[in-house]
Amino acid sequence: MAREKEGNGVQPESTISVIGPGMKFVGDCETEGTIRVDGTVEGSIKAGKAVVIGERGLVKGDVSTMDAVVAGRTLGNLIAESRLEFQSTCQLDGEVRARRIQVGEGAILNGSVHMIAKAG
Questions:
Q1: Cβ atoms within 10 A of the Cβ of 83, count?
Q2: 120 partner at 20 to 30 Å CA-CA among 74, 81, 97, 114?
Q3: How far apart are CA 10 and CA 27, in angstroms?
């Protein structure tokens, strides 16, 4: 069965939303696709596919997604239903839940880490 496309012909899960350097977004972000944060988000992020927090990115809120790559700073809880990668430049203050985790040498994790067997 084929997936329905939005009016512009782009499937929502293939969309990449960007909070660019120097940009500050206040409020909750939600997408079926991927969101990349190179600026600041003050609010929760929910992405159906992935969240990427760049080296200069800052998220002050909870993050929930399928896959995540964190190189910047996160102040809040992070749930990755499939895969979570903490790069060496990241700093996270909060609770982490993920099925698989990769941590780069030098990453700073302040909080608890829970390995989950399946989504939810």
A1: 16
A2: 74
A3: 25
* Contacts with 15 (C-beta within 8 Å, 6 or more apart), sequence order: 31, 32, 33, 34
Residue found under tokens 């993920």: 98
Give the angle subtended at the CA of 54 by the CAs of 51 and 56, to the nearest 5°: 140
Torsion-angle region of 7 (φ positive above 0: left; ψ -120 to 50: alpha; else: beta):
alpha
Strand-strand pairing, 91-93 and 73-75: parallel
State both tokens at 41.
Answer: 């988000």
Residue 14 CA to its chain's centroid (Å): 16
Tell me whether strands 40-42 and 58-60 are parallel, antiparallel or unpaired.
Answer: parallel
Residues 26-80 have pLDDT tens digits of 999 999 999 999 999 999 999 999 999 999 999 999 999 999 999 999 999 999 9
Say which DSSP state 6 is in.
Answer: P
Selection from 16, 15, 41 nearest residue 28 by Cα = 41
The whole-angstrom separation of Cα 108 and Cα 65 is 21
